[in-house]
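Review session, final week

We close the course with one last complete record, chosen because it touches almost every idea we covered. It is Multidrug efflux system protein MdtL, a protein from Pseudosulfitobacter pseudonitzschiae with 412 residues. Go through it on your own first, then we will talk.
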Amino acid sequence: MNLPRPNRDYIPAIGLGVTQIMGYGTLMYAYAVLLPEMARDLGLTLSEVFGILSLGLFFGGLVSPIAGKLVDHCGGRWVMTLGSIVASLALMAMSQIEGRIGLFVLILVAEGAGMFVLYNVAFASVARLDLGVPPQRSISVITLFGGVASTIFWPLTLALFNWYGWETTWVILGFSALLICTPIHFFVLRGPEREADAPKPDNAPDWPELTGHLRKQAMLWMVVSFVFSGYLMGAVMTLWVTNVQDLGHTAAMAAFAGAVIGPFKTVGRFFEMLVSRSMYPLVTYALSLGLMFSGFVVLLIFGFTLTGLLLAAALYGMGDGIKTIARGTLPLALFGTKGYGARLGWISFVQMGINASAPFAFAWTTQTYGGWWSFAVMALCLCCAIATYMFIPDPRTHRHDPAQNRRLPENI
């Protein structure tokens, strides 16, 4: 069946959206359920297993610029296809772990390969394709799907563990990722690609790019804000269940509340899609930070109750869902499409290099002071993200700024 051109143009984003569900579900969310159980069986502490995960995330940050440059030079098809194969095999091999060294090696491999298949590479891959829809729209579609990863994989992983144990669960998760993600990456990323210096499509938003000293200033404060707002992301994905249990809820209720985050990520992203043609990415990012912070305020005050817990999960989910879009569209709006993949890679390198310590730091905080204080520190991180956001210059207010003419190298 021959689909109309507009419908065909959305196929890559839809396919990559499906693979992001699998990617984040298996490479991020499954750890929250399985690592504490693995620690118990392997004779490790909670801090040790999440410290190993932190090292894996740090290694992922190191290889992220390489993945971005590869997409810029040769497109995302082979990058994402091979990445999904390696990540899936590493997940299946997790079933054979017998000690901390095996856990360390396989998490390093899995998280390194994950940088070749998760959001940043997916965003850069669709931005390279010559489609009839602007990259910003494709990015929104991809994240719209990815929002349900926690909804599916927290309860699913818990159920698989209860039925089969963590060894078989890793085999099931890894084989499912291999079976689903590899062919999708191979087939949906075929087709013509845009040249790096090609003019903007007619239907692309009229977003002026920053140049001159403002370009460097924007990169600095945007990355600092991303670091603060992203520092709690890995901790929420991996410690949500543990921290919520510490507030007095059961593991099943903690997993259920975590599952609520996913649908509200989708709600937030659907709202962003409806207004994305009129909402500038700086506004999108500010909205996301406000919603996430509101969620933590509710969690800290009312999180001991079921209603408060679910409301907090909903607010945080909406904010985090919108933030994922802003993480892809804000660098595109401020700096343009040239070198976009490498730029996302370097941003990820800085962000993940720092944020890799988050699972260990928050696991230590939970272990030492309790889940409430762990959530309180996460809220403080968001306060810092909001404060540094205020220093990001808005290109729309500097269209006729003479300083814009003092241009800096475009690879910033």
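Two points worth writing down before the exam:
Residues 212-246 form the longest helix (35 residues).
The chain has 16 helices and no strands.
Good luck, everyone.
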